[in-house]
Amino acid sequence: MSRSRAPEVATLRVMAQTLAIFYGFGGVAGLLVTAGAGPGPHRPVLLGLALSALAGAAVVARWGARWPRPAFDVVVGSATVLVSVGILVSPDPATALAAAALITFVVVDAHLFFSGRRAWLQLAFAVGAVTAALQASGEVPPATALALDAVLVGLGVVIRRLVIRASGASRDPLTGLRNRRGFDEALDELLSEAARTREPLSAALLDVDHFKQVNDTYGHEAGDRVLRRVADVWRAELPAGSVLARHGGDEFSLLLPGMRGVDALAVVRRICALHPDVPLSCGVTQHAPGDSASQLMRGADRALYDAKLLGRGRTELFDGPAGRPTGVRPRG
Q: Does residue 315 carry a pLDDT above 90?
């Protein structure tokens, strides 16, 4: 996995919790900076910035887990703005540097929350804004500002390396998809989201037909090419927000948030029809309120079993214990 494409390792819940903690500690640090700055016209501004950070912590802690990922770009960028304003209104170099040190929170957030380009853009914005603010204050030598820049960039590099290693623990090295661990993490998060929003959630299991025969006849390298082909095809065709994972062996698992079972069935059916060279048996089910993760996946497994039983190369929808599987006629 290349460093530029390494995925985010934090779920929305972890992102919200981490950002709330950093905003909270940043606000406390801002109060301490205000107390140590002495009297003057700068104090109301510093106090306002500190209180804004504390208010931001409360907002993110309460609602952040419900936000889409792009919203965190704005919140992290806003932290850079707060720090930069704090530097500009600082009455002396010591206070300015104390305020500038808070930008380390932004560096950590950027590389934990965002992948590749977005992370480095946040870092560049943070370094550029803090450096400009320190120089605009006129009291911090350029060499001191550059020393801080070097620390921030070094911190970003180290965190990026750690993120890459951490993301590898939840990724399948052959296909680049999530592995079982990464899928389970995403499933827990999406189930919590569905419980809060009452939005539908569907799951599917995809099984490569006659995969053992491919391995036995053409070798494991040919089997690996088939698995990579499945990953590439489905990754390109699935709607945004979908979670695709290699569940194990020749089986893939799929989560489709915001989709009812019949809609998920249509998506799976469409992709299968577009790529008949990748023969798959698929099982689809919809999450029922109150069902656990294991119950959801058992429904998908039941539908997959029906698809295989009825001749493979087809997709079945399992509607629950009281329902009946809805079949799609075999391809070709």
A: yes
Compute the CA torsion angle 37, 43, 47, 49 (nearest 10 deg). -100
Asked whether residue 107 carries a pLDDT value surpassing 60, the answer given is yes
DSSP letters for 190-243:
HHHHHHHH---EEEEEEEETTHHHHHHHH-HHHHHHHHHHHHHHHHHHSPTT-E
Using the Cα atoms of residue 22, residue 26, residue 29 and residue 31 in order, give the sign of their dihedral: negative
Summarize pLDDT for 281-301 with one digit per residue, the tens.
999 999 998 899 999 999 999
- What confidence category does residue 169 fall into, taking pLDDT thresholds of 50, 70 and 90? confident
- Residue 176 has, within 13 A of its CA and on its CB side, a CA count of 15
One-letter amino acid identity for 16? A
Secondary structure element (H or E) that encloses residue 247, with its range: strand 243-248
| C-alpha triplet 297, 318, 172: angle, nearest 5° | 35
**Residues paired with residue 251 on neighbouring β-strands, in sequence order:** 207, 248
Question: Which residues are catalytically annotated?
Answer: 250
Query: CA distances (Å), 204 to each of 87, 156, 287, in order?
Result: 52, 38, 11
> Long-range contacts: 261-269, Cβ < 8 Å, 24+?
261/200, 261/202, 261/285, 261/286, 261/317, 261/319, 262/317, 262/326, 263/202, 264/202, 264/203, 264/204, 264/317, 265/315, 265/317, 265/326, 265/328, 267/238, 267/239, 268/204, 268/206, 268/315, 269/315, 269/328
